[in-house]
Write a structure and sequence with these properties.
The protein is an alpha/beta fold. The chain contains nine helices and ten strands. α3 links the parallel β3 and β4. The longest helix has 24 residues.
């Protein structure tokens, strides 16, 4: 089965009707990989329960928690906080390293689909969505908006950027483009936003971590990493030709030594990324090109297509 090389705008628009049954809120289903994520200072709009505390003179008796008061024989009240608007940013990687896929789709296609699903989910509940799209040579910033027209504008640009990817590009992929994109976004952030970074995280380094840590001082960050099975092991490839655009070599994938070295390098990168993000409390969603993205995202976030809508 050949991988889908490019994404179509009509397919990203169609994902609007599948953008349900998952949530990016701190309170998550038990099955979700985001379970245990620290509750953000930002709650959305309306009123949200915050804590129980002892009754103080002047408290509204309508907020009395009679069940806890009866059980403890001490008056307790329920404290609520006002929810505010939550801007959401998606950072979408369309570098040459993403133009790779051995199964269902290219990583670049999976990233575009993940961004569209997330964006339609945010728009669907009335919150603002913005984007930073980047490749090896440029990045484009679209400020958060509730407008479907604004969303369609940057989805169209995302499709255009996706179609610029070619295997025989004269320009090599730049690993520094990742940190440059993160640093660019950081200049646009204020506070109380949710940032979803969608990438293969090629070029992840201490600068990337420092930038994300700076973002997290006043915002939430979720990392979404997209990989391909062939990046983990060469064993599944009968004949493999590798090219840098100018030269190419044929790799004998049946040689166990070569496969072991290849797998070890991938595992080291993955483990470093996973351990670093975990140590700093940044949730990691893992997606693969092996199957369609929607089902994977629902499974990762503990939802189902039939699940009731929830705020992102």
């Amino acid at each position: 089965m050949s991988a889908t090389a490019y994404v179509a705008l009509k397919d990203l628009v169609r994902l609007r009707y599948r953008a349900q049954g998952f949530s990016y809120r701190p309170v998550q289903p038990v099955k979700s990989v985001l379970t245990g994520r620290k509750r953000s200072r930002l709650r959305g709009r309306g009123l949200d329960f915050d804590e129980l505390r002892h009754y103080r003179p002047g408290d509204d008796v309508r907020n009395m928690d009679w069940r806890v008061t009866h059980r403890t024989r001490t008056p307790f009240v329920r404290v609520y906080t006002e929810e505010r608007d939550r801007p959401v940013w998606v950072v979408v990687d369309q570098r040459l390293t993403m133009f790779f896929g051995s199964r269902c789709q290219m990583k670049s296609v999976g990233a575009a689909q993940t961004a569209a699903l997330s964006a339609w989910r945010v728009i669907g509940v009335g919150d603002r969505i913005g984007a930073l799209l980047f490749n090896d040579t440029t990045s484009k910033v679209y400020r958060p908006s509730r407008s479907s027209g604004a969303l369609m504008h940057w989805l169209s640009e995302l499709v255009s950027m996706n179609h610029q990817l070619v295997a025989d590009s004269d320009e090599p992929s730049r690993s520094t483009a990742l940190v440059e994109a993160l640093q660019t976004l950081n200049r646009y952030l204020t506070h109380d936003s949710l940032i979803i970074v969608i990438s293969d995280f090629d070029g992840w380094n201490d600068q990337c971590l420092s930038t994300i840590k700076a973002m997290r001082q006043s915002n939430d960050v979720i990392a979404t990493v997209i990989t391909d099975p062939l990046e983990r092991s060469l064993a599944s490839a009968d004949q493999l030709v590798v090219s840098d655009g100018a030269f190419q070599i044929q790799v004998e994938s049946e040689k166990k030594e070569a496969d072991a070295r290849f797998s070890a390098k991938f595992d080291a990168h993955r483990d470093r990324l996973t351990d670093t993000l975990k140590r700093h409390g940044i949730p990691l969603i893992s997606l693969t090109t092996e199957s369609e993205i929607t089902s994977q995202l629902l499974r990762q976030l503990g939802g189902t297509p039939a699940a009731p809508a929830a705020r992102p």
